[in-house]
Write a structure and sequence with these properties.
2 copies of one chain form a homodimer. Chain A is of the alpha/beta class. Chain A has 2 domains: 3-83, Winged helix-like DNA-binding domain superfamily/Winged helix DNA-binding domain (Arc Repressor Mutant, subunit A, Orthogonal Bundle); 89-195, Rossmann fold. The first copy, chain A, is built from 8 helices and 9 strands. In chain A, strand 7 (153-156), helix 7 and strand 8 (177-180) form a beta-alpha-beta unit. The first copy, chain A, is globular. The interface between A and B is large, with 64 and 65 residues. Bound molecules: nicotinamide-adenine-dinucleotide (NAD) (2 copies). The structure holds a DNA duplex (30 and 30 nucleotides).
Chain lengths: 220, 220
DNA sequence: GGCTTATTGGTATTTTTTTATCGAGAATGA
DNA sequence: TCATTCTCGATAAAAAAATACCAATAAGCC
């Protein structure tokens, strides 16, 4: 009956996806020195429904005060804790090409609980280099390094043709979760977490909307 | 306000997001020379529900044959037409940094109905260069080039601090749709399409799952 | 101190999306 | 030819998510 379903119960996926958006906004507020915030305010700012915001925040276990709202720092902590972003999870990146290099150069991951500590590539010319401060190793060294360093996350940015085999290496090395930037749907055992970054899906939403408005324009 | 739009536009967003995933798979099938495919087969391959696949495909207007399925080339065409991917939509990219450069170097966009024809950057050192075959112009030249070339899509990859002002330039230049890679929620008029690429959301799903399994492990 | 108002947190309702069911059509092989 | 089997397409049911509602509560104001 009570509120206590928080910990292991499966929260709605759409809610989880909104949490980092709140988090980003809350951090900006914290910088500005705002001590408290209400759902109404958050909702106004992000053009969402206040009730939805309240329900989303509730899954992290935060409790607010009527007429006041939530303490900003406390709310930030609560979201971070729920997502496992309090300490940065260490990760390996596989495939140091266009995208892989860009991700290695992105400082924002520090705020998203991710720390890429090393990179791997099968190309002899890439291995041995240092890109954005991270050493690039030959792929063969991944298994031993992964077990030695207790890394649980793999970021996959190889070409589609190499995606499954590279994923197999990650899985064989005891990696728990793969952040998959390739268009390939990976085969993986059920206890391995695979999260696909579907850039194409995002673009599909954009272009189907664009297509619809264009068609509309023509008609009227 | 055109009422005509409603019948065209009410496809479920989750369905639209799955379409490019089908498309990718169908193209692989076409390469292999497979002439027809059934929902059952697609569903098996992608670990989805066959009924869901059928409904998704139905929104593109395709009609299949019982006992046979769909003609692969016809189905590809149907999805492409629905998404507006039959001809590549021309786009400008703003912010030629880590991510912007990676996107410029990505050849896969040709299959996603996108063709980035030029790039813009406010940094004097970047303007004038050519990156992956695309010329980089100073941001000031964007408005005149956009109207001259009838470009409708802007890809936004500037730092968060510059996101809104760069978006304003795009909007002021008659751009219809912004593919926003920054974490900033942009203010835009209602007739401008803004599609946010929420990398953080994707990572949040991954890490909350990882966090949950870790907690589980500890308990047992 | 009592009144008013903003806001939480729980419940209820509506809407959206997913999943199940079933009749009919079409290929296959007996 | 005809039964069999697979698959589509439509409809119905279930599940998930978004939205509406309201009592309780705390802050600010008169
Ligand atoms: N570049 C982008 O903007 C972009 C956008 C969306 C999706 N993607 C996807 O990301 C992936 C990488 O794209 P990219 O543009 O960076 O490609 P890329 O060719 O620039 O880089 C791929 C890298 O992977 C390395 N590699 C190849 N096989 C490997 C293996 N078996 N093990 C380890 N490393 C291996 C290559 O040496 C190369 O350095 C692709 O699957 C692509 O579809 C890229
Ligand atoms: N790099 C990544 O992997 C990554 C991942 C997720 C999100 N992002 C987001 O993408 C954006 C860009 O990231 P990045 O790593 O490429 O940053 P970056 O600093 O490497 O590149 C930003 C580029 O934008 C240019 N720029 C700055 N202000 C501008 C303006 N007003 N008009 C035009 N150009 C301007 C800069 O000169 C620079 O070339 C950021 O908002 C970041 O949050 C990046």
């Amino acid at each position: 009956m009570a509120i206590v379903n928080t910990e292991l119960k499966n929260a709605p996926l759409p809610s989880i996806k909104r949490l980092p958006i709140y988090l980003n906004m809350l951090r900006l507020m914290q910088v500005k020195g705002r001590p408290v915030v209400s759902c109404t305010h958050i909702a106004d700012d992000l053009h969402l429904d206040p009730t939805q915001v309240r329900k989303d925040l509730a899954i992290t276990g935060i409790i607010g005060r009527p007429k006041v709202g939530y303490q900003v720092p406390e709310l930030i902590q609560s979201i971070e804790a729920f997502l496992g972003w309090k300490k940065a999870n260490e990760a390996f990146l596989v495939g140091v090409g266009n995208l892989g290099s860009a991700l290695l150069g992105y400082e924002g991951f520090a705020h998203l609980g991710l720390k890429i500590i090393a990179a791997f590539d099968s190309h002899p010319e890439k291995a041995g280099k240092t890109i954005h401060g991270r050493e690039v190793f030959p792929l063969e060294q991944l298994p031993s390094l992964a077990s030695r360093m207790h890394v649980h996350i793999g970021v996959l940015t190889v070409p589609a043709s190499a995606a499954q085999s590279a994923a197999d290496v990650l899985i064989g090395s005891g990696i728990r979760a793969i952040w998959n930037f390739t268009a390939t749907r990976l085969d993986a055992p059920p206890d391995t977490i695979v999260e696909n970054v579907e850039l194409a899906s995002s673009l599909a939403v954009l272009s189907s909307k664009l297509e619809a408005t264009m068609k509309n324009k023509k008609k009227s």
